Amino acid sequence: MKSIRGIIFIILIMGTSSLLWFFAIPVEPLHSLDKLSHMIGGLAITGFFVVFLLSTRMKMLDRWFHGLENVYRYHKYMAIISLALVILHGQLQERVPEMDKGFETSLSEFSKELGELGQYGFIALILIALLAKFLKYEHWRVIHRFMLIPYTFGIYHAYFSSKYDLLQPTPLGIFTAITTTIGFMSALYMLTMYQDMFFKYKGKITSIQQMGKNAIELEITLDKKIPYQYGQFVFIKFFQDGLEKAPHPFSISSGNGEKIFVTIKVLGDFTHQVYHSIKINTAVALNGPYGQLNFEKGPQSQIWIAGGIGITPFLSYLQAQPINRPIELFYTYRGEDNAIYKDFLQGYAWTNQHFKVYFIDTTQMDRLSFENYHVPANTKVYLCGPEKMVKHFTKQLKSHNNDITIDFEAFKFR
Predict the structure, then answer these.
(1) Are 193 and 205 in a shared domain?
(2) Domain hosting residue 229, numbered range
(3) Measured distance CA(28)–CA(37) in Å, rounded
(4) Burial environment of residue 134 by CB neighbours within 10 A (0 to 12, 13 to 18, 19 or more)
């Protein structure tokens, strides 16, 4: 399992929280339901700490989860789990007998009201965020910015309505202080500092080349060299009037680090704007590189499967050096206008005996299928394309041999 280190990290954090709440001593005797409710609420706060930490795009997390697409997947899972814990916490609190709830001060009553507001806020925002495929990326991103508000309410609620003294330097108090502080700062960092402080590679667009009907290749000249590996991607901000300043991810298709090339295909509103209006000398800022595709590791023989613009991570490897291992590339696309870099791939196959390429135009032939395809022993499979395609081919390939090694990069960051 590629994300094993990240999964272990989540289990350790949530497990530590469970144990600390279980063995903590309340300031007054608690009904068993009240004690369980506190534990569930504590786990919810810890869960949201993990959620906000996973949103920071830290390189360490990229490595632990084997790619940012996996980081965001577990970010989503933890948000759903934490929301369920918040709701369960509220339901349990309602079932605690009134006589066992103890005396409430005006401060604890206010924190209880904030807790309820936080719960409703999380429910609304997370449910909207889960409908991401129906939202424009810009709207989805704005919704995420509001998550800090219910999280702040939840922290206040945890500290001032709890029957445990979380302000004391007990193991639970220290753990809660650390996780809530890091969680809050992670959210604040993404809101205020990330876009200004962590795009350290500056440059400008020095060439624009048409690549088929709906794609362009940008040459970006940087002020300093970016140390990227083949198959990685970067987040790019374009400083041009009329274009959104928010960063978007693009794979590096080639380059020496001082100059890099990225290929942009029209897939949504933002890429449509870039395609039609981007200009030479537009200033850019880059954050990265990210991605854990590594074509040098693993078995000698490889199978590559690319869907549409998913060809770009493979190009960076092919254009950097001649290959000396058997590689078969299956490149699927819809229409010849979308077969970007086809001429290059054909030429490469003609001049390199180790490389074979198969072009699948789904407007002219059946869709690519691996139902009856047997992956040879000691072969590694690399997949890059839309998430649905990656899942579909992974399932087909695993149905014949569950032991084959598959590495992938899927286009989904929300």
Answers:
(1) no
(2) 201-290
(3) 15
(4) exposed
